[in-house]
Structure formats: structure tokens, C-alpha cells
Design a protein that fits this description.
- The chain has 131 residues and is mainly alpha-helical.
- It has 2 domains: 36 residues; 60 residues, no CATH class.
- The chain is 30% helix and 3% strand.
- It is built from 4 helices and 2 strands.
- Strands 1-2 form a two-stranded antiparallel ribbon.
- A hairpin with a 2-residue loop joins strand 1 and strand 2.
- The model has no long low-confidence stretch (mean pLDDT 75).
Length: 131
Amino acid sequence: MTVQGLNSEAIGYVPLIELMYCTDCGQQLRDAGNFCPCCGKPTGTEALPAIQRPRLVRVMEGKKIAGVCTGFARYLDVDVVLVRIVWLVIALTAGVGFIGYIVAWIAMPREETPVYSHPATTNQGNTLANI
């Protein structure tokens, strides 16, 4: 018996679970296993690299008082003016904004600036003027 061109008897033989095999030795893998039971090779997809989010730090470039709002703006990826307005509204309405700013000023580390910055990439050779 066929249903729209498909053999209804063959549909019952189609496995619902797709079987997985080791790409190294060819052994059938168990569902719960993370390693091949025969050769020990890790199964599944490779671990994805971790996405690095920016750290919550006080930014010294473009700061007005201590760099707290600039740090939050960079961390949340929003405009610094928006963060400053929201912080000011919270400070004036609830009064918690002033305390929160001082706590964030103390708790947030300063942005690490590189000790040595690379010079411009103009290569004029080694002369006494370049040293």
C-alpha cells in the first residue's frame, strides 16, 4: 500500500533516532557518552570559543567625574549620555544614585592602560633620530 508515493510499510522501518558513529574508529556511539568507548576520542561538536564581553571598569578617557558612567555605557554598549541621564534621574528622584555612584567608584577597577604603546608603523630604518 502506498500513500502519496510512499511505501507505508517502509515508514515503520525508518529509525526515529539518528545513530552516531565515531569518525576515528567507526564504532557506534551511545547517546549519553562524551567519548568513544573504543578509541576514547571526544564525540560531538567542538567547544565553541568563549565570547569575551568587555569588563566593567572605570574608563578614564572621556570621563566627567570618575569614569563610572562611561564604564557602564561601554559595558552595556549604549550611549554614555543615556547612562548619565538615567543615573542623574535615579539620583534626583530616589537618592540611591549618589550612593550607587560612590559604591561603583570604589568597587569598579580602573581601566588598564598599556604601559608601552607601539610606535607608528612608518619604517624609516634604524637611525639616531628614530632611537
